[in-house]
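Side project, low priority. Logging it here so it doesn't get lost.
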Amino acid sequence: MKRDDFSWMIGGVQGSGVDTSAIVFSKAAASGGLYVFGKREYYSNIKGEHSYFQVRVSKDLIRSHVDTVDMLATFEEETIFRHALEVRSEGAIIYDPDQDTKRLDTIPTIEANVKATLTAELSKAGLSADVKGVIELARRRGVHIYPVPYNDLLKEVGTKHGETSLSTLQRMLNVMAVASSFALLSYDQELVKDAVRKQFKSKPKVAEMNADAVGAAYGFMGQKYAGSFAYKLSPVKADGTRLFVRGNSMVAMAKELAGCRLQTYYPITPASDESEYLEAHSEMQLDGAASQGEPRLAEAAAMKGKGAIAVVQSEDEIAAVTMAIGGGIAGVRSSTSTSGPGFSLMAEGLGYAGMNEVPVVVTLYSRGGPSTGLPTRHEQGDLRFALHAGHGEFPRLVLASGDLEEAFYDTVRAFNYSEKYQTPVIHMVDKALANSDGTIPMLDVKRVKIDRGALLREIKDVTNGEFKRFKHVESGISPRAPVGTKGGVYWLTGDEHDEVGHISEDPVNRDYMMEKRMGKMELAAKEIPISDRANFFGPEKADVTVVSWGSTKGAILDAMEWLKSDGITVNFLQIRLVNPFPTEYVTALLSKAKKVVGIEMNYSGQLIGIVRERTCIPVEQMVIKYNGRPMSSEEIYDAIKMIHEGKAPKRMVLKRGA
C-alpha cells in the first residue's frame, strides 16, 4: 500500500493544550492549501489522563485516519511510552531530552497491561524501562530521533518578553512542539505563526509570545537538524475555498441555517460540544434570508436582519426532550442533542411526540455502551435502539451521516422531514465523526431549502370552537397549527385520541389513528429520493461489495483507492436513511454482488442484521470493531485484501488503536 500523505501525532496530559496544538497544526497546514483530517482521542475524566491527536495531511483529498505515525511530537514522557513504537521506520520523534530518566513505573495513568507489554519489549532488547530506553528502541527500529531543549528555548523567548516564570513559559511547550515539527518538515514558518496568532487572537500578548516561540523553534531546528529528515511539507495552491471544521460544530451551524431556534440539552459527552458551540454563537445574521424563504424571511423582517437561537441546559434528559417537544408544539423548529445514556431517558418523550405527531429532531451522538460504557470513545451500538426506542409502535425517521459535509446537509433534511411528516427524526452522528476535524469544500447554502410541511398560519376549519388537529386526510398528514393560533382549540394527551385530541379507546378510532401514524413511513419511503437515502460508490460490478453506515465511510473510500491500485475492485453501499429502509434499492444492488462484506463499529453487526431482515439476503462476511477506537483506512484495506484472497474468517474483529 502506497500512501501519499503525512501522519503527525501529538499527545499529552489532558488540559495541557494537546487539542490546541493539533488545531494550530491543522490550521497551518490547511492555510497552505493542504487537505487535513484530524482524529481526537481522550479519556472521560477532565484532566490528568492521557489524550492524543493525530492529524493527517495531503495535497489530495483525505477522509480518514491511518494507524501509521510518520512523526510523533512530544513534550512529556507518557506520550513517548504510549506512542513511540507506533512510529514507522524512517519516521521521526521529537522529544525533550530532559525526560530521559523518567521511568515507566512512575507513570500512574498508564494501564498495567500496557506497562507489562512495553517492559517486556525493552527487557528483551536489553534496555531500561525509561524514556531513554524507549527512545533507543525506536532508534534501533529505524526512527529518526530529534532531541529539543524546550526549556532553554523558552527561556530565550521569556527574556525577550520580560517573562521569567518557567511555569508560565511552559504553557507554550505544545506550540513549540508543533513549530519544531513544521521546522523539521521545512514548512513555511509564516503560515505557522499566522495559525498561532489566529488561535490566540483574543490575547494579543500571548499570541505574540507564542509566535516568537515558533521562531525560536525554527531557529534551533534549522541550525541543528537542517536537511536531516527526508520528508518535506510544502504549501500548494488550493482548488477553491475550503472550510476547516469539527463534526459537532458542523451540525450546530447547520441547525442555525435550518431555522432551528430552540436547542435543549443536558451535558453528556460527546454531544455537549454541539450545544456549547450554539451557546457561543447564539446570535446570527439573517441578511440573506430573503432568498431562502420561510422561516428566516419572516424572522429577518421581524428582527431587522438579526436572529438568535435559545439554548437551554435542562435539569436532565427527560426535561430536554419534552422541552424540545414543547417547542415543536409551539411551532418552533426545535431539537435536542444527546448520547446513549441520555437517549435512554428520552424514550418516553419520543413516544409522546409520536402519539401527538409533533415534529422534533434528536441528534444522537453514538458512543461506547452499555450504561456509562466508554463515555469518550467510539461505537455504533445504538442503531437498533434508535429504531425501536419507546414502547408501542410509532413512526420515526432514522438518518445516519457518514462525513462532515453529509452531516451538514442531513441536519437540514432532518428538520424538513420532521415537519413534513410530523414525527420525531433521530439524526445519528457517531463519536468519531463528532470529534473529527477536516477540510471540506465550501458549503453551498443555496442547496438548503426549508420545507415546513402542512403548517397553518391561520385556522379556518373549526367545528364548535374546536380544531381537528388530527383530521382524517388522504395523505395521513393532518394540517397542524401551533398552540395558541387564533381560531381553534385542540387537545394533546399521551393517550389515544380522536381528531380533536379527546381521549378515545374506541377500537375503530384506534385502528384509524394507528394506520394514520404508521402510514407516514410508507409515504416518506415514496417521497424521499433514493439519493438522500443511500449512496453507492465505485463500479457497478466489483470483486467485493461493502455495506456500511456512519463514519466508516471515509476510511472505506480511502481504502478503496489503495485496493484499486492493487487490482482489487470494490464498490460500497452506504445506508443513510435506515428508517424507512430503502429495501428495494438495497435488494437490487446486493442480489447482483459477487461477495458482500458488512463493516460496522459494533459487536453484533446491527445494520447487517437489518439488511437481512428487510431483504432476506444474508451477509456472511463481517468486519467489526468494538474496542472504542474508530476504524482506520489501513485496517479496512488489510481486512478487504484478506477477504479477497480467501484468508479471512467470516467474522473479522479489528483491534488497532491506542
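Brief comment: The first helix runs from residue 18 to 31.
Revisit when time allows.
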